Amino acid sequence: MARYNGPKCRLCRREGEKLFLKGDRCYTDKCAYERRPYAPGMHGRARKKMSDYALQLREKQKVRRMYGVLEHQFLLYFKEADRRKGVTGTNLLAQLECRLDNVIYRMGFANSRDQARQLVRHGVFMRNGRRVSIPSMQIRPGDVIEVREENRKIPVVQEAQNVIARRGVPSWMEVDGAAFKGTVKAVPVREDIQHPINEQLIVELYSK
User: Fold this and answer.
1) Which of 11, 91, 116, 187 is deepest in the core (most CB within 10 A)?
2) Measured between alpha carbons, how far is 12 from 39 in angstroms, rounded to an integer?
């Protein structure tokens, strides 16, 4: 399945909650979900009773869309999370949080994960002093992410720095905005992920 290129706000409305796919706009009264908090389409306002399978599927789709991961990629993440020691659901979320594009978004160097992904592909960032261009790269504790000096005046990067106060920086990373640099201090734990996600539903879906 190809990557979705349609209206981002339509995905939030379909999942019934904000996925913060459009950066700072999601915090304003321009947010489409705030104006129309129901599913898109002519039957969007209809009340529907969801089966257990539908609830599990919607939770998986919500998380997949939030992090911008394709179906096959998401399945591989789950298999790896299931293989590792610990709680499968927590392992899955930790892997998604440690993606390079998500780390850049969390550090405030991009307004959204989509924007972070595009900037990474254009070689705007360095990891431990080396240029990187793979958005799905897994970041480890101790890694230093910084904006290349020649790219620090890019308007979207500077704009993202101005609005990071709305989101805040997670406790598992440390950011020096003036130096356009951030350090990952630890692997995120479940308490670090504030968005309402019921990862157990995803585990149940893939365990059938």
Assistant:
1) 116
2) 8
